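Notes, Module 5: Reading structure tokens.

Key idea: the token line is not a picture. It is a compressed description, and you learn to read it the same way you learned to read a sequence, by spotting repeated patterns. We will look at two proteins. The first is printed below with its tokens.
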Amino acid sequence: MHIFGPVIDVRPLFPRERQAMVDLLRALAPADWSRPTVCPGWDVHAVVGHVLNDYMRRISGGRDGHRGAIFREDETLPAYLARTNDEFVRAARQLSPRLMIELLDHLGPELDALWAGRDLNGPAGLNVSWAATDVPSPAWLDIAREYTEFWVHQQQVRDAVEMPGADTPDLMAPVLATFARALPYALRAEDRPEGTAVALEATGPAGGEWHAVRREGRWTLGTPATEPAARVRMDQDAFWRLATRGITVEAAREHAVLTGDPALTAAATTLLAVVA
């Protein structure tokens, strides 16, 4: 059962997203690195340090087989990620902006090579828990998740320094399509008859429409055979911010048009595409 929908191959986009990020960072004034971002307690320097951590962690684990930090006793995945991310960001305070930019520029091709060597339909290096917790993720979804991570953090920096960009449809559309893979999981507690569908539409140049369909006792991403029982429609900016909690569920609903089964629209607008 292909519960995650068709393959999204974002691998050609990593160099372009990274170049946009590096160009942005090189244009920043020293004071810009201390500007606060939407990430609680993190300024621009911290967000860039976190991106650098992601590069190094995935290369170390995926290329070199390095296990990395160990879970503490009874530590949950969100707690583990919060702790290890904070540890690296704190250590990265010792790095100059220039050095961090150079490291991103240097390590990026190594990460690109790692993704290029993966079978997209093979097993993920890291499962995507916000898409499903009971079935393994395919490699393409893991790689697409990493692309969304880098793109979103770049947007958070851009918001902080008031320099929009990297939001053309070719760079942004795969982010929205990947986040739509969280829709079935958002609906998991809603039991409905076989074939029931929920439509999610993101409007705008990078937008699209996706459907979660009830099949064999679970929600999957697919094509409905009947008119959706519920529909959620919001603009593309509100959608990616909802998925990453850059805005609250309540704020997203204020930006959305919700029709049909209210329980299904309520569940769909809790969609979350980050670990929290």
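Here is the second protein, with the sequence above and the tokens below, as before.
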Amino acid sequence: MTNHLKNNIYHIYDTSNTAFGVDPLSHFAMGDALIRLVGNAEAPAALHFWPMEKLVILGMMDTRLPHLEDGLRYLRNVPTDIVVRNAGGLAVVADEGILNFSLVLPETEKAKLTIHDGYVLMKELVEQTFSDSEQVIEAFEISDSYCPGDFDLSINGKKFAGIAQRRFKNGVAIMIYMSVTGNQQQRGEMIRRFYEESLQGEETRWHFPAVDPASMANLAELLDKPLTVADVKERILSVFTRNGNTLLPGEYNERLMAEYETAYAKMKKRNEQVNQEQYPEAD
């Protein structure tokens, strides 16, 4: 299997530093555009950083909640922006203390990356990012966290990160959110209340987590060291540099922007349901 952490060329995209940063939909559209270009061999592999300020990201399954409008009303009153993402999973929080990062890789017939391989690769990257710590990072489902999954990353049983993947032909993005700083208890309570309002005790054919805010914690707390999102971003970049990779600024060229516009239109359509009240049409 190709070693994606060593001796490769990566283009860096940080959409918090651009005009895209003001529109939550734009980060997801840019992510899809990067997968398309990398998958078509029109661009090298990419590192995509996209910090947010105040956002709840819903999964497609969340749109099936029986009292979704009540849950959305609660979130709007928090207040927080809301987006339905285009990759799997359930509701997560993105704010200034959370690092959202995607590793966008090409696939070929000779170098296929299975879903399991993708998760293992991201775990290995996180382990190298915090190799100066003696804490052991484990990967297993924390069932009472928000957006639980088989590869939840945790320290001492407390989840600090979740991983998702999105795949198109010949391209894959492995995405992670890491709780670095901030009030993780409050984040967990917000998602717990969202499901409480959206379910109202009803049984559904889909499983939604009974969120216990105490099941998750921040990296700064778990590693017992002062950390910021910027620190963790620099640590990630240092891993790639140490491993002999060439890091270059990403180019927002015509091809990328064409794919972005197409992906953005799809994201806008996907979000019509949750954004009706957030951005009401003029009479």
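Summary for the second protein:
- The longest strand covers residues 158-168.
- Residues 9-136+163-181+227-275 form a domain with the BirA Bifunctional Protein; domain 2 fold (CATH 3.30.930.10).
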